[in-house]
Amino acid sequence: MGLYTAQNYDDKMESDYFSKKITDVEEDADKNWDKTTVSMIMASSCLGMLLSFICLILSMKPQYRRTFYSTKTSNKAVQETFTNFKEDEVKINILSQNKYKWESILKDDVKAWVADRLPVWMEEQPEWFTEQKMSTIPDHYVEDIDMLRKLRMLHGRDEQQKGEMPVQKRRKSISVVIAEAAIGGVDGKFMVEAT
Length: 195
Fold this sequence. Notes:
about 60% helix; disordered C terminus; mainly alpha
């Protein structure tokens, strides 16, 4: 064995370094997928999703296909339902929708429509004019006090105050209900179990 000179030592270190790098790259190639494999997997996944979407569209009833990919916003759809339909049964559904979708644009129209049609509904009592539909009519949309009384009495909102203007009561918040249940009290009274 000969003595290492500085040059020999540097050459040996350099060759060890490069051989280690080549070994690391080969191991990394085994661990990681190459670019073409990843591209093929991504392309086949995208193709699979596209084919499943096409199958979904083709499996729908043809009259509903346009509703699946419409670009119309829900606000616009709610407003168009009120303005485009003539049937009261369809138009009254606007009152059960989120008021922020229509109230800023159609409030006056809806209020006038309710004031105009409510006497007719009260007299004719159509099948669709149920208690649920009656409950969606806001009190401030009915300008005639007598009509409001009739509506509330028909709906049964003021069973405790017959003949008087109904007083709307708020439900307890969920935190109050949970707290009462946790401590065993109801309306500030504690329940005692019989032993």
